[in-house]
Known about the structure:
- By secondary structure, this protein is an alpha+beta fold.
- The protein contains 34 helices and 12 strands.
- The strands form 3 sheets. A 7-stranded antiparallel sheet has the order 1-2-3-4-5-7-6. Strands 8-10-11 form a 3-stranded antiparallel sheet. A two-stranded antiparallel ribbon has the order 9-12.
- The radius of gyration is 30 Å and the shape is globular.
- It starts with a helix and ends with a helix.
Amino acid sequence: TDAVLDLVQENPSLLGSDSIDLLRRAPLDTQAAMIQALKDVEGFREKCAEVFNASFEAKPSDERDATLLFLQAQGITDDNGYTVLHAISDKTVTECTEADKELTKKLIEISTPEQLNARVDGSSQGKTALELASLGGLTDIVELFVKAANTAPEKKKVLFLQNASGYTPLHLLCKQYALTPNQIKIAQMLINGATSEQLNLKTISGKVVLEIACENENQPEEIITALVKHWINKESDITLASPLLRSILKYPLPGSSVAILANKFNTTPSFMERCRLLVTQSKTPLDPIEIFRAAYFLERNFPTGQEVIDLAQVKSDAVEVELPAIAIEIAKEKMAESSKKDFSSHQSQILRKIVERYESIQATVKKIKPRDAMRATFVMEYEASKVESVMKKVLQQSLPGYVSVTEGELPARWKILKEEGRIYLITGDELGKGTFKETTKAIEFTFAHAVYTPTKATAHLVLHDTADEEAVADMKQEIEVLEKLKGLPGIVTLHAVRPLDDTGRQGMIAELCDGDMEGLVKEKSIKELVAPENLSSRLHTFGGMLAGLESMHAKELLHLDIKPGNCLVKDGVGKLTDFGTISTFAQAKSSVVATQGVYRTPHYTSLAVYKDPSCLDTRADLWAAAMSLKLLYDGQEFPWMNKLSDTVDKAGIVNKKAFPVEKFEKLVKEELYTPTEELEKLGDSRTTEQTNRYLVYSFMTKMAKGAMTAQEARVQFEDIIKQIK
């Protein structure tokens, strides 16, 4: 062995597959030393990768397995940073064979905890083998990890290892938009074997896995129910004051989960009595979750015998939890009763004002929901006096712009912007938040006859204090584009722009939309998404995205970040937004997108640009639009998009070695072009669902292949909507 090592180190050209084979055959206690000695020899890592690939692709045999076990034990990876265990775990359900499963069992046995916890390419953003297997739905492979963790305590950590964002494999599964049956089985497997401490692990945003699961509106009922059941069984001190209970009640919990929660409190007579009374008192039928929320709210804030009402808590619960009308009405009555007990006390005076304001709003605002009336009541009673005093300053300020206010004059995070004949009251109601930018609600007041009258709700966009120079430049460019495209179809409307401070940051007022395309999809279940009665109305919003691209391309502008999240929806019409990466046709070849060879959102990159960045033109936007249509159609992105996204590092750069062009081409053909061809062959024998899919897939194929302009795409899509059955 020493002789061979000396020879190879003196003459690296002697390295070959035989050298690797020699290493594998060496005594186990000397293999690591040999690898250490050779690791810096030029060409050694590459030769290892060659052997890795050749062995992995060979037919199953004892010889092949011995080599792969050696490569795993020594932590040797292929060109893409995959260990043998990563490579098997990244296979699809159909690709993973019985031989692979047998080999995986041995790989897990011989791997150290550090090797099991290793991430692809060694980066903090790379996935572990268990994460790959879980997301890929490889139930048998995950089961092997679970068995190993149960029999070898030192390997237990792999099941709930947190990534850089604090997500465990279970967190990642619960974040998935639509779980497959296999992924559901895997999630249940992980939940069943988890400890209370493991399920209480928090992400960097401070959320446990139950909260992540409840946030996902398409989360399978059995997953939420399993998590709730585990939480109830493992925690002995759950009360109405538990923060996690308050958190999950904001979401639409399934009936089975509500039943488990209700059972937890069935020994509390007052709580159960409230539930019974709510059912009999409500004028409309209540769902289980509505009954539980109402009972929770009333028992928590108005328990029998309580002398002092915690108005801050009542306000918080009434605003954040979706309460039924009966709960709000009972709360109003309780506050009215309490206001009469000690008539002259400060709290009684406040309670009377709240009750009077609430009744006034209900009487003057037509069809307002009790919960919205109560929300408005608290805002007006707690914040109105501050706003009124600042309004006087507005009248004294002659020039348009943000009104200067001292700390405490307005509620926290509120602002006032004056324009000619208008005032924008910018509230702290957050509509959205990005890396550098946040959007809050703003109310427009029109000045007429010496009176300011509220006219409409708008959106206020501003950069965070931490925004860098690039973000400031992006927003400046976005404002210029919005002014240039003002009034054109498919573009969000800009109302006002003013300097925010002397740092170069600007604030802008834009039209308030109902949400974005991504949110539109996530509010529907998969079954509703593909239902014909919903399909045409939902796809109608996509016409707005195409109209926006037509408007931009006509001005010789490329968007370069088309995706569902960047297309807002207003009254069923799509409107493009977020123009920070825009480029003119002439500048496209030197843009950041062209330089890096990927779109701003990498997994929406077109195959043509991925192959050759100099191909950046209108077809790149149309490709991304086609991928957006896929999400709108059935609520899921193409699987290849997830695989491409997995190779992106923190800087947004794609590892093209991990996702070569050949693989990209192969997957696009398998997942888009071939299914379209197969549907076309069916001809008149297609079912209604197949016909709808064919119409959408054939249109996406044309867009992906760059066979039309944005104008042609819009016209053709209008015809497709008419054909959807």
